[in-house]
Structures are given as C-alpha cells and as structure tokens.
Design a protein that fits this description.
It is a single chain. This protein is α+β, with helices and mostly antiparallel strands. The chain folds into two domains: 148 residues, Glutaredoxin; 104 residues, no CATH class. The protein has 13 helices and four strands. A four-stranded mixed β-sheet has the order 2-1-3-4, with helices on both faces. Strand 3 and strand 4 form a beta hairpin. Helix 10 runs antiparallel to helix 11. The chain is elongated, with a radius of gyration of 29 Å. The protein starts with a helix and ends with a helix.
C-alpha cells in the first residue's frame, strides 16, 4: 500500500519537473519578461507621480520630444506654495491615480510651483534624497525644471490651474478654471473633446523606445535574434506615430538589415553548388528575422525553391476546375 507521504513527495517532484520543462520551453520567461517590461514602463497604480519620469520637469527636453512624437500638448499644472487651497487640492488629486492617468493620457504632464505668501518657494526636506514637501511630488526637480514654462504666462489668482502648451510653438491656452476641482472624469472628458483623434499613450511611446534601445544593445552577433525580436515588437507601434518614429526605427534596424542582406547573399551563393545548404541558410534567416523585411525576403526565396512537381500540381488545379461540368 502506498503511503500518503510517498504520494505527496511524488506530486511535488512531478510539479517540479513540469515547471522545469516549461522554463526550458521558454514559456515562463516570456511571461516574466512581459511582466517586468510592464512594471518598468507603466506608472504605479497607487501613486503615478512617485515615478520621477512622470512630471516633465525632470527632463524638459525629453518631455518636449515626447509631446512632439505623440502629437500632444504639455499640460502644465500650476500650484501655489504654502497655500491652503493648493495644499488641500494636491493632497486629494496628486495622489489620485485616475487624475494623473487622465493627464498623461492626453498630454505630457508638467508641474510648476509659484511663490506663496512669503514670496519664496520651499526647499527639499532632505538634501540627500531631495524629498519634496509638496504632496504627489517625490522630487523637487520634477517641478523646478518646469519653471521656464511660466515665463510668458499670466499667473491667475485662483490656483491650481492647468495650461495646455504647444510643444512646437510654445503657445499656451488655459483650460477652464473649475476643471482641476471637478475630478478625473471631467478632466478626461474635456481633454478628449479637444482632439479629433486618439493620440498614442505614454506607455505605448515608452514601450517603443524601450524596444529600440534593447535592439541597439543586442546588435552583436550572439544576440542578433533577440534584437530582431525587439525590432518586431517596436514595429507594432509605428502605425500610431508619425514619420519621425519610423525614422528612429530605421536607424535601429540598419545594422540588422546589413547583416540580413549578407546572410541572404551567402545563401544564394551556396545554392549554386549545394542546394540543401543554401536552403538551410535561408531557413535560418527566415526564422531569425521573422516579421522583418529580410526575413520575408528569405521566406519568399524558400518558397521559390519548391520542387517543380508541387508547382505544376498547384498550377493545374484551376484548369481542372474549369473542366468540371456545371
């Protein structure tokens, strides 16, 4: 009679083998990669502004580039330092993930702080960590970098206020003064009504850039196939953006294209003396560069190598159909 302990141990070893097999097959790493990628690019649900990349002030040049590529405005949110209204509003809305998501969905969020009653702006709580006392802002650099956006603006008395700034011209337009106080749904509805088409999201933009960065890192011989996969992943997002992003993709693809052309030439040369070797080389290119132009070219060349008997059978089928009586 088999003891319960033996059954338990057998079940554990069986599960362990199953997990090992799935890792060997590559199913688990794919899920883990997707999960890590999502976590590294998406802002956290609890507090999006905790990510230093959320507010444009952390890097204004990158923020303007993002706005131009996504074809969205910079949404400048202005608060007053050491002001009861601004402080209360910040505690409520700058810790609200829905409100912050609405901002980055329709633009590139920027935060600026103007002097309060004392005529001064706060300094960080801790010099080493640069902790910002403003609710919803983890780093003073996030709002300090946006200060140049205030130069040509007439600051209203009632704050907080949101301005929509064209990244190309710098033209600013104030949105209704009551909108920041009406919550995320009202903000999302208003901003959605100001655009004719739905712009690509910030997550999609960052996904594309991350895939391109990885492709540049993987351009070496040993990681060539990984780089091809990153380029295919980035290519899925190109239809959402303009020609500039396509140009960036082409630049990242250039070394892969060059190597793909070389491998296809080598395969075609091998076909002249060793048909089997040439076919194997083409199969390798088609597999490694699947979804890319050179991969498609290799696939078409393989298709052209089909035996003549198969081609003649395929060509004869329509003729036979025509002879079938109605």
């Amino acid at each position: 009679m088999i003891s319960p302990l033996f059954l338990t141990l057998a079940l554990c070893f069986s599960l362990s083998d199953g997990i090992t097999d799935s890792v060997a097959d590559g199913s688990l790493p794919n899920k883990e990669t997707q999960s890590k990628e999502t976590q590294s690019v998406e802002s956290t649900a609890n507090n999006l502004s905790a990510d230093t990349r959320y507010w444009a002030g952390s890097d204004m040049e990158k923020a303007k580039t993002e706005a131009l590529h996504r074809k969205v405005p910079i949404l400048l949110l202005i608060v007053r330092d050491d002001d009861p209204v601004s402080s209360s509003w910040s505690r409520q809305h700058l810790n609200d993930s829905a409100f912050l998501t609405a901002l980055e969905k329709h633009g590139v969020p920027a935060l600026a702080c103007v002097p309060g009653p004392s005529g001064k702006i706060h300094s960080s709580l801790e010099e080493q960590s640069d902790s910002c006392p403003l609710d919803g802002c983890g780093n003073c650099k996030a709002h300090q970098g946006s200060t140049p956006l205030l130069e040509n603006l007439t600051i209203p008395k009632l704050l907080p206020r949101i301005f929509s700034i064209d990244p190309a011209t710098g033209e600013a337009r104030a949105i209704p003064e009551d909108l920041p106080f009406r919550g995320s749904k009202a903000l999302d509805s208003y901003l959605a009504g100001r655009t004719e088409t739905t712009p690509p999201t910030r997550r999609e933009y960052r996904f594309l850039l991350k895939h391109l960065d990885r492709a540049r890192e993987y351009s070496g011989y040993e990681e060539f196939e990984k780089g091809c996969q990153e380029l295919v992943a980035a290519k899925r997002y190109l239809s959402l953006f303009g020609q500039e992003m396509t140009g960036l993709w082409d630049q990242a693809y250039a070394p892969y294209r060059g190597r793909g052309i070389q491998m296809i030439r080598k395969a075609k040369h091998a076909l002249k003396t060793n048909r089997m070797l040439g076919a194997r080389l083409l199969t390798r290119v088609a597999k490694m560069m699947a979804g890319l132009p050179e991969g498609e070219r290799a696939r078409h060349l393989l298709s052209a190598l089909q035996p003549r008997e198969e081609k003649s059978d395929q060509e004869a089928k329509p003729v036979q159909d025509q002879n079938i009586p109605n």
